[in-house]
Amino acid sequence: MRENSKNKGLKKSLYLFLSSLLGVLLFLVLHRIVVFFYLYISDSGLVSSGNGLGYLYFLAIDYFTLIITLMLGAWYGIWLGIYWYEKVYEEGSHNGLAAHIVENYWPKKKFSGYRLDTKIKLAQKKLEADLWELEGLTKKVSVKSSTVPSPNPVKRKVVRKQAPKRLKKS
Question: Taking each helix axis from N to C terminus, what angle separates 2-44 and 55-85, rounded to the nearest 10 degrees?
């Protein structure tokens, strides 16, 4: 029991660490793309910036924004790791990417023949419809009394309870 909870804690820690690393890398790539486009625009002369930024000033801004970006990436990765760890391992509501692809591209055929209760219900409905059809046909067809003997009517006894006799007051 103790090893299971230890493994669970280790699994969650590893999951959160790797997701935070993924968040840091994602935000680092985004930061570098923004810096690349800024340098491309400023060097190509598309934007007239007057004096422009000095090289040391630009490096200070780049370093400061890099630190902020890495912290935001780590925060985003941890948040994402917590969210998906709960979804996948604690709730069990997400089967994974492979199951998602299989369910969307090759859905299961909906066939109710495998369930016995649906087969029974369908058979009952068909039997009821056939009985109504048979009853309708018997009303249409006249049966000769000479060929088919009529059954004797069932005699039923009517049993009544006798009312209790009144006792005379004395």
Answer: 150
Handedness of CA 39, 43, 44, 49 (dihedral sign): positive
Angle, CA of 82, 88 and 90, to the nearest 5°:
75
Alpha-carbon distance of 59 to 53, in angstroms, equals: 10
pTM of the model: 0.53
Give the residue among 106, 82, 68, 91 at the shortest CA–CA distance from 16. Answer: 82
Task: Name the nearest CA neighbour of 34 among 5, 2, 11, 68.
Answer: 68
Give the contacts of 27 (CB within 8 A, at least 6 positions apart): 69, 70, 72, 73, 76
What are the tens digits of pLDDT across the range 25-47?
Answer: 999 999 999 999 988 888 777 66
